[in-house]
Amino acid sequence: MRVLRKLGLPAGHSARRSYSARGSFYTAAWTRRVLGAGLVSLVMLHTPAVLAAGPKPSVADQLNDYPTEARADYVFGCMATNGQSSDVLRRCSCSIDVIASILPYDKYVEAATVLSMRQTGGERMAIFSQAASAKELVANLRRAQAEADIVCF
Q: In 34, 43, 95, 126, which residue has its Cα 20 to 30 A from 143's Cα atom?
């Protein structure tokens, strides 16, 4: 109540109220004053967790976590290897879709980084070819690529 009085709102303020899942409320005017005062953390205490977290990604967004640039890069590399025809374009697009359905994007990036570092060579890069975690990342990518080859090619 003291916070409401400090912000210039009476204790029984009856302006438009938004109710959270816990039953607490805040007013639009109160929120504007708090934000203007730089007390964002106070608003977060009185705002429902759903609103504070923002919108949840849809199932389609969760399944399609590969950015367009990464998909296009894979398709260009695949076409450079397998030929420059519309049939190969379709097959390479299918291939990255299958890989994306098996392997999350962050794991794909980690495995691609390990493979890139293995090509560099040298003593400092030996960890990328000898570490068990690096081997597991690459093995998971290779399994996903093998599955994609079976389905698409």
A: 126
> Rounded to whole angstroms, how far apart are CA atoms 6 and 9?
7
- What is the distance in angstroms between the CA of the first residue and the CA of the last residue of the chain? 68
Q: Please, which residues have CB within 8 angstroms of residue 54's CB and are 6 or more apart in sequence?
A: none
Phi-psi category of residue 57: left, alpha or beta, with phi > 0 → left and psi -120 to 50 → alpha: beta
Burial class of residue 84, CB neighbours in 10 A (0-12, 13-18, 19+): exposed
* Residue at token pair 């709102």: 9
Average confidence (pLDDT) over 13-22: 39
Query: The pTM is what?
Result: 0.60
Closest to 28 (Cα-Cα) out of 55, 51, 53: 51
